[in-house]
Structures are given as C-alpha cells and as structure tokens.
Amino acid sequence: MTDRIETITTPAAMAARAAELARRGVRVGFVPTMGALHDGHLELVRTARAKNDVALVSIFVNPLQFGPNEDFTRYPRDLDGDLAKLATVGCDAVFTTDAASMYPRGFATYVVNDALTDRFEGAVRPGHFRGVLTVVAKLFHLVRPTVAYFGQKDAQQALLIRRMVADLDFPLQVSVQPTVREPDGLARSSRNVFLSQEGRTRGLALSRGLKAAAARYAAGERSAAALIATARGELEATAGVGVDYVALVHADTLEDVRQADARALMWVAARVDGVRLLDNALLSAPTEAAW
Ligand code: AMP
User: Fold this and answer.
1) How far from 44 is each of 49, 57, 218, 257, CA to CA, in Å?
2) Which domains does the chain have, with CATH numbers?
3) How far apart are CA 248 and CA 259, in angstroms?
C-alpha cells in the first residue's frame, strides 16, 4: 500500500514538486504534522483529500518548537507506521526531511507574534510558538498549499497561524477542524502513548471538566467564574492531575471573558504522568469546530 505515496525528502525537491502542481493548477490540501499519526491527524488528511485534488502531509519533528527541557528526543517517531496509515486515507504525498535541511548553518530568521503568545501555551513554553510559526511559514513556502488544515485541539496554534497568514499575506486558506477524541472523550494526541493505564483514566478529567461546564452553560449558567470552577472541580477531584490552567476566553481573541456567550471557549491544560494534556471546547457547541 505504502508505495502509492510519493515521499519527498529534501526542501528543494518539495519546492520543485509544488511549482509543478501550481503550474498545473492542482488544488493542494496540506496537513503539517510531527508524525506518530493518530486518528486526529488522519481525519485532517481525509478532509484535505475530500476538498482538494491532492492531499499532502508533512512529517517533521521540529526542534525549534521544543524548549531545552522538553521532550524533543523522546517525542514518538514511526515513519513506516505513519506511511502505512496515510495510505489508508488517500494521502498522495509526504514531505519529510531532516533538521539540518530545514535549518542549515547560519539560519537566523524567525516569525514571531507579539500579541497572542504571552498566555496559555505561550507562557508555559517560551519560544514554542516562534518555532511553530517559523517552521509553518517555511512549509507554506515549500508546499504552496491551496488550503492548510489544523486541529482545534491546538487552538492557540490555529489562531496564531491564521494571524500569520493574514499578517504576512500568505496566499492560502486556513481550515480548523474539530478535535478528534477517543470513544471515552480523551482528545487524541501523539503524547497519549506516554500515559500509563491509570494516567489515561486520569486524563479523562479534562474532557469531563469541559463537558460539565458545557452542561452548566446549557442549563443557563453564564458566569465565567462559576463555569471555570465547575471544570476546575472535575480536574482537582482527580488524583494525579496537576492543573496548569483553566480559562474561559473569547474564541477569536483569547481574551478572558466574565460572562460566557456563544463564542466562549473553555480551555484546560494539565499534567498527568509528566505528560502535558490540552483540551478546549466552545461551551455553546462542544462537539463543533470553533472556527
Ligand atoms: P502535531 O503532529 O501534534 O503537530 O499535530 C499536527 C496537526 O494535527 C495539528 O494541526 C494538530 O492540531 C492536529 N491534531 C492533533 N491532535 C488532534 C486531534 N485530536 N483532533 C484534531 N486534530 C488534531
């Protein structure tokens, strides 16, 4: 099966292929990933394939977005497994290259957002979004997608990429798709493989907290403090869950709200078994995409 997927391994080859696709007017749906693919990624690829002529996936564990004490070296990698999975969802081509090719000697230019990065993941992981935006900008230039697909699970990242595309005039569309979950509610993540059996069960506290807050919202509660307390209560009632933050923000600005409305996004991050888990949902429509 995997021989159906074209594998492109250098930036120059990727740029040449993209130029050829552009010349032919082919619509390219692009899904950037760090590999260790799961159903969340595969759903993005299915959508990219359904809405475009070609689905192209990049697999690159980007050193620039990991802090010195983060899990870059132990981040899961499984290229053969990834290619086999991608063959089942209609992926046409994969771009996967090494760090030395993306960041050759002398590399010194970065993409930085000055407004949206001082909170949430940006505050906990200094430099993380500089790394994300820089690599995504490079990938956009190399791949020249018609539409790029991102997951709502990483909501701050999705908003930052939207901002970068608008601010720097990238000629492409950004599409954000709903979070794909395990049947029991746990948001799919490449890092879930690091969870023990008990950790996995504890990790359910995040989606349970969002669900409980959404239920209170549906019952008419609008006070941010009360809704946050509901979600936080679920997290704190679960042993072994270290809460990093629980917040209620406006989905378009990430600014705190005092009163929830239809655009109120609840946002949680916690540590379980030393693994950072993230989740978020619109309280008014928890299973739908926020953007
Ligand atoms: P990553 O490989 O973790 O960098 O993720 C690549 C893309 O897949 C990003 O746009 C993520 O937001 C998206 N993604 C990761 N997990 C999920 C999920 N559970 N549901 C939907 N999209 C996801």
Assistant:
1) 9, 10, 29, 30
2) 6-177 (3.40.50.620), 197-282 (3.30.1300.10)
3) 9
270 CB contacts (<8 Å, ≥6 apart)? 203, 205, 206, 235, 241, 242, 243, 244, 276, 277
Closest CA to 231 of 290, 286, 157: 286
Supply 208's token pair.
């349970």
Instruction: List the strands of the sheet with 242-250, edge to edge.
Output: 242-250, 264-272, 275-282
CA distances 187 to 68, 119, 192, 284, Å, are 26, 21, 9, 18
Question: What is the pTM for the complete model shown?
Answer: 0.96
Binding pocket residue ranges, ligand 1, CB within 6 Å: 33-34, 40-41, 44, 150-151, 153-154, 177, 179-180, 187-190
Structure tokens at 15: 């740029």
Q: pLDDT digits over 104-126, tens only?
A: 999 999 999 999 898 999 999 99
Which token pair is 172? 């492409």
Q: Residue 166: enclosing H or E segment and its boundaries?
A: helix 155-167
- Residues 275, 198: contact at Cβ < 8 Å? no
State in Å: Cα 108 to ligand 1 middle: 27
Closest by CA position to 143, among listed 3, 5, 4, 20: 20
SS3 of residue 66 by DSSP? coil
Over residues 3-19, the pLDDT tens digits come to 579 999 999 999 999 99
- Residue 150 CA to ligand 1 center (angstroms) comes to 6
CA 129 to ligand 1 center in whole angstroms: 15
